[in-house]
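Check out one such.
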Amino acid sequence: MHLRHASEQIAMYRRIVLLLVSMYAVALVAEQRSTGARNGAEGLALPAPNSTTAYEPFFHEGRGYWERDYLVYVDPLTPRVDVYDKDKNVASVKVTIPGYSSFSLSDATVTTDGHLVISGCSFADEGGKIHCFIGLADRNGHVSPLVDTERFAPSRISTCDGTTVWAMGWLRAPPHFDREGGEPYDVLRLYRLSDGKIIESDLPRSSFPGRSRPSSPGGFESPELMMQCRGTILGIYEGASDEWIEYDSSNSKLTRWNLTRQTHHFMQYDRDGREVGFGLHPTFITGLAMLDSGDVYASFIHEARDGSAAATVGLFQLHKAGLEATWLQVGGTLGVYGEPGRFDELCGTDGNNLVYSRFGEHHWFFSAAPH
């Protein structure tokens, strides 16, 4: 009798265990499906590299970005732009502008046919008036044509066709021109190089948080503003308000998507002027790129300021739906910060390739878009 009773108890326990295991398996599958829907990691992976650079340039300050077959580096301390291809330093352009002995460069980009476009600001040698500018620079550093944007300081520039240049910037206020004025203006402008005329203007300053400058380029590790043109689409990552913005010049249509809010290196304010404090587990963007297809990718680093976990890095693809956009994980790129051979950060695009770095490697990698 005792043996029979024990056997019945064991059978009952087995049925309970099997039931619990079955329930857990169902829940796990449901959770995996739910997670896959949220992060998009299922089936999305970074292909193996198809080529690499022969070098890894060292930048003492600032950083370089790959675009249209070239790496472009703007030296923040001198008016110089270095342009690289995959194998060697193609050119180092020391910019000279008559009448402006002291000026700074804010950005540079390469046209589809390989010409260099620059932007910056300076005080004129005579009269001391502030002049900001956009222009085409040849390999000897001469800038022509030169567009005088006056008080409008272009922080980032991009071009779709080589004859017009998009500029996102801020309006300097007198008398010292070192601060932003309170007058209304658009932060995005399209200049025609041939005559310097503004042919498009959008993104009113009032449509961004008041206390944060939407045209701030950000620091070395975390770019807060990036702008790239592919075909007829201009794409803008704007970190102050956490938005992805697209302007389609074929129909003059502007679309703005709210992104999953990221923590920044500096104090942020919401649209009502309230301070948004720092969290213990911030996430910073380290690179962003838009391919010719229009697909957008970004790399992030996630930190634990309380020391509870190691910092992690990874590559993500932007998924746009309605007025909201989310970052979808790219499989095979998520890992611990600093682990040799692991994905480090996104450095730009080269045609349909993403350009990125790996920890401990002394060159950059080129891979087709994740699939």
Q: What stands out?
A: The chain has one domain: 47-368.
